[in-house]
């Protein structure tokens, strides 16, 4: 009888812990999503370039190094959370989180800017995301803020 009570207490604690963890994770995501939207809002030229890249069907795999700190990336993982917002000019933006297992298990924030790509990013499950990795420069963006702008999504 005593073992059943202990087992029930452990199950109850696990359920409460999981619920609190999910709430905290979503609140933290909302804060990160707001920061990403604010940083993109401050760089309209970057938003315009991302929209143009997401509409282009022919993207060369090799290209010249850009003057800004921007690199291409490919991430394969499970998208488990996303939120949609609009920039001040009306451009739709979807910010999400994907869980990636390589090189280690980690959550990666990403953003999709523009009509068709922003709606394509509104899905949960396994996806391949391709786009630009942007690193903060310490002037226009926080130097510790790195985020991904997706230009292609594959199911």
Write up this protein.
The chain is of the alpha+beta class and 155 residues long. It has a single domain, classed as OB fold (Dihydrolipoamide Acetyltransferase, E2P) (Beta Barrel). The protein is built from three helices and five strands; from the N terminus they run ααβββαββ. Strands 1-2-3-5-4 form a five-stranded mixed beta barrel. β1 and β2 form a beta hairpin. It is elongated, with a radius of gyration of 19 Å. The model has no long low-confidence stretch (mean pLDDT 78).
CATH-defined fold name: OB fold (Dihydrolipoamide Acetyltransferase, E2P)
CATH class type: Mainly Beta
Report the mean per-residue pLDDT as an integer. Answer: 78
Q: Regions with pLDDT < 50 over 5+ consecutive residues?
A: none
Number of domains: 1
**What profile does the largest beta sheet have?**
5 strands, mixed, barrel
Distance between the termini: 50 Å
Roughly how many Å is the radius of gyration? 19 Å
Under CATH, the homologous superfamily reads Nucleic acid-binding proteins
Shape: elongated
Number of strands: 5
Q: Which structural class do the helices and strands define?
A: alpha+beta
* Portion in beta strands: 25-35%
Relevant terms:
155 residues, alpha+beta, OB fold (Dihydrolipoamide Acetyltransferase, E2P), five-stranded mixed β-barrel, 3 helices, 37% helix, elongated
Could you provide a short overview of the structure?
This protein has helices spanning 2-41, 44-55, 115-120; strands spanning 70-86, 92-100, 106-113, 125-135, 146-154. With 155 residues, the chain is of the alpha+beta class. It has a single domain (3-154), classed as Nucleic acid-binding proteins (OB fold (Dihydrolipoamide Acetyltransferase, E2P), Beta Barrel).
